[in-house]
Amino acid sequence: MRKAFPRRAIVAALAAVGIALAPIKAAADEVVVFAAASLTNALDRVAAGWTAETTHTAVISYAGSSALARQIQQGAPADIFISASVEWMDAVADTGDLREGTRRDLLGNTLVLIAHGRDVPPVTVDADLDLTGMLGDGRLAMALVDAVPAGIYGKAALTSLGLWDGVAARVAQTDNVRAALALVARNEAPLGIVYATDAAAEEDVSVIGTFPAATHAPIVYPAGITAESKSPVAADFLDYLGSDAARVIWEAEGFTVIE
């Protein structure tokens, strides 16, 4: 049986992973959403559109999918979980923390190599890429390579190309992909691996290459309602995520909408 998860412990735990969470108890017209950090800009816009149409409110907490999944498994009060990988959604489902019949695949994305600054010349991302030389004395910014989806995809891609061993000791790992993006934007790391949608949201980086899709598992964002959700508008918001109005926003932000 799952242990009780006191409110104070929930707040402390979420703060520890950098989640900004509004009042935790969802009112009748609120839905609490735990979402992958890479969705920040787009999902904020989608939620605003939903609020304008319905007057309901989405209270969204962003972090790495792994951290969010673990919080849900420990009883954190989320109504909807949107992961950046099927594996972490599988993990939540496997522990009985996802409401059956609500899971759906929403979005796809692309993995890219970024550099600090604007208009940086592109490179070809393949087995001949001299990534170590490009780093110089700097580090490669990535989300946690064994936990956060963007980091897992990135490590898999580099391994597939035979580049991982050369840079493994040079990786600066962060709790989520937006933190990796920030390292490059602030020139604390010369290069990074993020999603194309993250790069599009930051003016101080350039996409210098795209990882071939065959080098990593498909990037899929599944969403579903948690087993413990009490929000009467959770299903409504989940449906809105796949609406025509949301599609316009997703595609404008660079995501691929999965039919």
TrEMBL record:
Molybdate binds at S38, S65, A150, V177, Y195. One of its GO terms (biological process) is molybdate ion transport. Residues 1-28 form the signal peptide. Pfam families: SBP_bac_11. It comes from the Bacteria. InterPro entries: ModA, ModA/WtpA. One of its GO terms (cellular component) is outer membrane-bounded periplasmic space. Keywords: Metal-binding, Molybdenum, Signal. Gene3D superfamilies: Periplasmic binding protein-like II (3.40.190.10). The keyword Signal applies. One of its GO terms (molecular function) is metal ion binding. The keyword Metal-binding applies. Belongs to the bacterial solute-binding protein ModA family. NCBIfam families: modA, PRK10677.1. The complex is composed of two ATP-binding proteins (ModC), two transmembrane proteins (ModB) and a solute-binding protein (ModA). PANTHER family: MOLYBDATE-BINDING PERIPLASMIC PROTEIN (PTHR30632), MOLYBDATE-BINDING PROTEIN MODA (PTHR30632:SF17). This is Molybdate transport system substrate-binding protein.
